[in-house]
Each structure stands twice: as structure tokens, then as C-alpha cells.
Write a structure and sequence with these properties.
Layout: E1 6-12, H1 15-27, E2 33-35, E3 53-58, H2 62-74, H3 76-79
């Protein structure tokens, strides 16, 4: 794997979800960006849509980013995503 190129670590169907994932990763000091893959935004979903929104991080941080996403997805109570 080329460590200099960004890699996809997650996919989302809604831009709001992609934004949350981006914010989560950035809170761990992992730079990231996402690409919609289509020039026009269709809400919420449309047959013209080309595919999911792809979330990219630097290749050398991909494993850590995936681990963080898995932890936050698997147990929202443990990860602190819900209020007590």
C-alpha cells in the first residue's frame, strides 16, 4: 500500500453522516476529507446518485481511523456517544 495517498476508511449515504464521521476522526487528530462522488446533491436519495460518500484519511492513519470508527459503532454507551 502506498503510504502517501489517502485511503477510504468509511462510506456514508448522507452528507450529515459523513460530516459526523469526519468530525469524530478529527477529534482524534486524524485529518480527513470526504468526497461525494457526484457533482449535484440529491436529497435524500435519488436513482441518479452515483454512489456513497467516501471518507478518506492518510494511508498511514487508516488502521487507527478504522479502529476508532469500529469502537464508536460497536458500543455507543462505552464510546461516550450517548448522554448519561
Amino acid at each position: 500500500m502506498d503510504k502517501s495517498n489517502p485511503v477510504v476508511v468509511a462510506r456514508a449515504w448522507l452528507e450529515g453522516e459523513a460530516s459526523v464521521i469526519k468530525s469524530l476522526l478529527e477529534s482524534y487528530d486524524i485529518p480527513c476529507h470526504y468526497s461525494t462522488g457526484f457533482p449535484v446533491r440529491f436529497y435524500p436519495l435519488s436513482p441518479e446518485r452515483e454512489g456513497p460518500i467516501k471518507i478518506y484519511v492518510p494511508a498511514e492513519l487508516a488502521e487507527e481511523a478504522r479502529r476508532i470508527l469500529e469502537e464508536h459503532e460497536s458500543d455507543p454507551l462505552e464510546s461516550g456517544l450517548t448522554e448519561e
